[in-house]
Model the fold of this input.
Amino acid sequence: MENRAISATLLAIDDDHDILKVLKANLELHGFTLLTADSLAAARAILADHKPDLVLLDLMLPDGDGLEFCCALKSLHPNLPVIMLSAKDKVSDKVIGLELGADDYMVKPFETRELLARIRARLRPAAPPSQSSIINAGDLSIDLRNQAVTVRGATVVLTPKEFQVLACLVENRNNLVTREELRQCLWSDAKLYAWSRVIDVHIQHLRQKIEANSAEPRFIVTVPGRGYRFDE
Done:
């Protein structure tokens, strides 16, 4: 079945003008509007006047580090999808990029069809919730739709990844969620993290923020050797 065109504005940041030309021709052919920047300064100027639906970001730019830019961008716009495009193909490079907030990572050269599929996946609207988006458990309140968490009425600040972990647990509350399932909630290429303990680090931070006693958690319970469970 042919993919239906999606109307969205994208921002491509890359100092290779040939790549920008190819991206513009191919993406606009499929119904996207593409803004282009060949430096971080140019990207910042565009972002001051426009609100793209997704960013394509090269890592090696003439006036700065794409990784640092991604981290800063995500802190300001946590729900803005970022796909990194890089010639760096080591697993460690991909892991660093994803841990700093990127939603996906593609190695140059890449197939346009695959890039289109990944863009569409990131822009696909979430299914409407079948029930209330607010989950209350004891003195903890989690608003899944608005990504807001309060404990005893006080707002708790979570990073985007921490909230994704919490949301995955809450949506499967009272049931085991394995580490592999949590990795799949966070990253499109979860196998990159098969060896990583990053999930456990996120869990540790969540417990410190939402539990009355992180050493004896009430909500996020460890299932030894398997994963975690959120108890109401």
User: Anything to note?
Assistant: The chain has two domains: 9-123, 134-230. Residues 16 and 38 are 7 Å apart (CA to CA). The domain at 134-230 is CATH 1.10.10.10 (Arc Repressor Mutant, subunit A). DSSP finds eight helices and 14 strands in the chain.
